[in-house]
Specification:
By secondary structure, the protein is mainly α. The chain contains 15 helices and two strands.
Amino acid sequence: MINAGDTAFVLISAALVAVMTPGLAFFYGGLVKRKNVLTIMMQSFISMGVVTVLWALFTFSLAFGDDFHGLIGNFKYAFMHGVGLDSVASYGPHIPFLAFFVFQMMFAIITPALITGAFADRMNFKSYLLFLVFWSVLIYAPLAHWVWGGGLIASLGALDFAGGTVVHISAGMAALASVFVLGKRKHTAHLPHNIPYVALGTALLWFGWYGFNAGSALGATPQAAAAFANTDIAASVAMVTWLALSWLVDKRPSMVGSLTGVLAGLVAITPAAGYVQPWASLVIGILASVVCFYAIKFRMKMGWDDALDVWGCHGVGGIVGSILTGVFASKAIGGVSGWIEGNPGQFLANLEGTLISIVFAFTATFLLLKILKQFMTFEIVTKEETEGLDRALHGEEAYDF
């Protein structure tokens, strides 16, 4: 039976998640060079259009249609057939199936947009559009099915409340694969051109993340309240931890560092939000901040040109959160006990699900980019990089001086 309160809650949560993609555009836009800001922002905004069209046509059905050998959904819901105002028990028993459709659509939109921070300044727009389409169909849809559609990872018993594997590990590992395939930029040294943009983007992401995590309860329930509280606690403690680390290690209290810490905490609590006690979110936030901080140091030492540290923040943060979900899951919150409550099997299931997500997202993205490169030129030429991508690719500039 449809519940008006639950329906309103999920629709509001979907709207909050929708705000996150423009927020990501500002976050990434502030971090890149002034002459490339429109290009990176355009990559986020165009995902809102392209992925929505794909979702309505068939990727929603691939993710949530009837299971085919644990690998993919069928075309039961293609062209939104059967996606109406009645509920579907397994996808929100008290909300219209259409509300579930739009809520999940917002996740599908932001995930490929996250990857763009890794290949900032390096991929032309036409190539990005093709990558966006193929990645959404071949990588996001299957992984969403494996975790939330009753597929492979769900059959292991692994827990992922709001997308630690589906969204963040997939985007982070895809980002790392793109770094290896596309190589380095010609000019890598630069400072963020607009830190207030970064702060604005972080604020929108943090705000939207309450819908991202609490909304994944698919109703106005006690579990949603726990997810909301855990989200804020993890983000806050991660920000403070990163501030302390940057002050101690880099000898300055960095604002960009503190904002990056917020994201690390938000990413890590995502798979655990509706499964752990609030005290555990404190631990998850601290550990995520420390691990992601040093992952970025490691990336710099290795010389990987992950321009905006998508792997170090989203990939590593998602891994930390996914594994710790299996450790700290509490039966009182989400109905499942983790290792700390005497169920080591949950830790092993989450570890296995995490490893599968890592290998699949990295390998599939690596192969996809390699194949696409055989048929078209991905990289920006030196002239375009020097002139600036905004003018060279779009004929526009963010600032008229």
